[in-house]
Amino acid sequence: MSTPREVRRLAFQILYQLDAIGPGHDAAEVLATLAEDDEEAGRYTAAERQKAFTLASEAYTDRAAADAFMNEAAPGWPAHRQAAVDRAILRLAHYEMTSGKTPPKIAVNEAVELAKVFSTEKSPAFVNGLLDKVLKKVLGEEGTADGAIADAGGVPASPETPATPSDSGVS
User: Could you tell me which of 13, 37, 81, 91 has the fewest CB atoms within 10 Å of its CB?
Assistant: First the structure.
């Protein structure tokens, strides 16, 4: 049995794949293909796979809302300039936070952890800075969202000027 973190990781990987192939493809077909090709097929139960596929598909469908918010929050880093990995992480976390699928502070933490594992050195701070703004919106807070996670150096990322991802992986 997989942990919620592992199911989220699978959802992130599926969302990344959906983004990589681009619009015009049927998400259900992509998800079915990924299920057949998954190297770790025995790692997840059918219910866990379905949960990850549903989460990824819903986040992919909601990507325009996530991208619009991120563009507003960091106009210098619209979705098309973000590293593809960061974009998938941000879209997944935004969807989880705004849909009520996950407590917002947990979604921020999980997104930062995904960025630490799958993206660049600067990405956790970038992801944290943008999601701090989503957190404030979701929680209706005026001040600093205490759920924002500190970057790898232990310093909270500034939501006003989030760290920029490295040029590697920017699509």
Answer: 37
Q: How far apart are CA 123 and CA 114, in angstroms?
A: 10
- Count other C-beta atoms under 10 Å from residue 154's C-beta: 6
The identity of residue 70, as a single letter, is M
Q: Which amino acid is at 133?
A: K
For residues 112 and 39, what is the distance between their CA atoms, to the nearest angstrom? 25
pTM recorded for the entire structure = 0.77
| Cα gap 116→95, rounded to integer Å | 20
CB 165 within 8 A of CB 123: yes
Residue 171 and residue 84 in contact, taking contact as beta carbons nearer than 8 Å: yes
pLDDT at 146: 43
Block means of pLDDT (10 residues each) for the chain, 171 residues, are: 92 90 70 61 81 92 94 89 95 96 95 97 95 92 43 37 40 32
Residue 159 has φ and ψ, to the nearest 5°, of -70, -20
